[in-house]
Specification:
Largest sheet: none
Number of strands: 0
Number of domains: 1
Distance between the termini: 14 Å
Number of helices: 4
Structural class: mainly alpha
Length: 104
């Protein structure tokens, strides 16, 4: 259960990071509201997961999922260029997240 919550929290991290960028410094109310709600839920899920998972591993997995998904969303939206090298590095990050789950 903790891993499921942690993964969902990582997905929410990507949502709030994207919304934060779209809020234009908290000047746009819609993205600002999405940021506030999803960041709260993401942190709550991370906190819950840390009650039964090692803190370092849980945090690394949470950040890794959020990072990869945030870059993917930005690439799909045309805000960032996904070069082959960036793809390899992101794949490596995914591999590290999977590895941390495997050894935890």
């Amino acid at each position: 259960m903790a891993w499921t919550v942690l993964i969902a929290s990582g997905v929410l991290e990507a949502v709030w990071a994207t919304a934060l960028g779209m809020s234009q410094g908290f000047r746009r109310p819609g993205p600002t509201l999405v940021f506030l709600v999803t960041s709260t839920l993401s942190m709550a899920g991370l906190s819950y997961a840390m009650t039964s998972l090692p803190t370092g591993s849980a945090y690394a997995v949470w950040v890794g999922i959020g990072t990869v998904l945030t870059v993917a969303v930005a690439a799909v939206r045309g805000q960032e260029k996904l070069t082959p090298l960036r793809g390899v590095l992101l794949a490596g990050l995914i591999g590290c997240v999977i590895g941390l789950k495997a050894v935890s």
